[in-house]
Amino acid sequence: MKQQPDIDVVIRYLEEPGHEEHKRSLDEWLQLDAANLDIFLETKALWQGEVLPATGSYDIAHQWQLLDAQLTATSLPPVTVTVPPVQAVPTPSKGKARALGTSTWWAAAAAAIVIAAAVIIYRQPAYIAQQTAQNTDSLLLPDGTRLYLNAHTSVKYPRNFQKNSRDIFVQQGEVFVDVKHMPEKPFSVHLKNVDIEVLGTSFDVKETKQGVKVFVQSGKVKAIYRNGKNAVILTPGEEAEMLLAGTTISTRHHRNNNPIAWKTGQLTFVDAPLSEVAEILEDYYKVNIVLKGEGLADKKLLATFHKESLTEVLDILSKTLQVQAVQKDSLVEIY
User: Fold this and answer.
1) Which pLDDT score, from 0 to 100, does residue 257 have?
2) What region holds the FecR protein domain (predicted)?
3) How many CB atoms lie within 10 A of CB 56?
4) What residues contact residue 98 under an 8 Å CB cut-off, 6+ apart?
5) Does domain 128-253 have CATH number 1.10.10.10?
6) Distance of CA 187 to CAs 9, 139, 195, 197, 276, Å?
């Protein structure tokens, strides 16, 4: 039987926290690696749409106490795992012992893992956070996968990937992912309500106020709503938009790589209507373009731009389509 990625254990548990089999699976998985508690808390925060806390901000002992009670409970309702500020772990008073009951083995194992987890998280964080300001950046992950980060983007990734899975978390912004091909070790990107699964490919994922956009340059990816109600498989040139509020997926096919122009610096238009050109230029140059006049939206443009300024593009646009473009700060009006 094919072994499932470790993250599936967490996802199944978060979907049905009262399911005994899922609780046992999570229990066993947490004991395999001290860093797994951190992974669980990260995934739970994203699952619930929370802002991920800074690395090392978990009260490890407190989290283990909560999980101990939750995973060993048989009739009580699920306990919510919270992420409080870091607090000093109190030293037990001499002469006092905690009643372990039938959980002696689990408590002993948990205590050992708590100590190991504390060392890992405070001395060598299990996760590395990367955030960009106004410039783009790139970084190489431990497995050889390269991430290209657009401006104002934040991602988190493990210092070392698990044995049978590779998981990263996009907290905000846009990332182009060039995945190292490892069929035996699937690569997954997790956002607020969407998960993306790949084997070896290059694709772009962008989180917007409305939802998530996924564009595939090469290979194949599967984008899944976390609630499991809808999914789509994308091939080269295809882009999907998945809204935060809902389960609908809209797709479109691109004849060019304009969705990743922020990375390549190149925009290509082949008989593209001006309405489409305006939409792409708005996203690339971060401006608002308004078309004023009948028939403007249907005018067709055949042109290629490579790292030209907006002023240069508007000048070429005006001469090619016989229109007038006026820019006022971040507003562009075309007559």
Assistant:
1) 93
2) 137-222
3) 16
4) 92, 107
5) no
6) 16, 16, 10, 6, 33
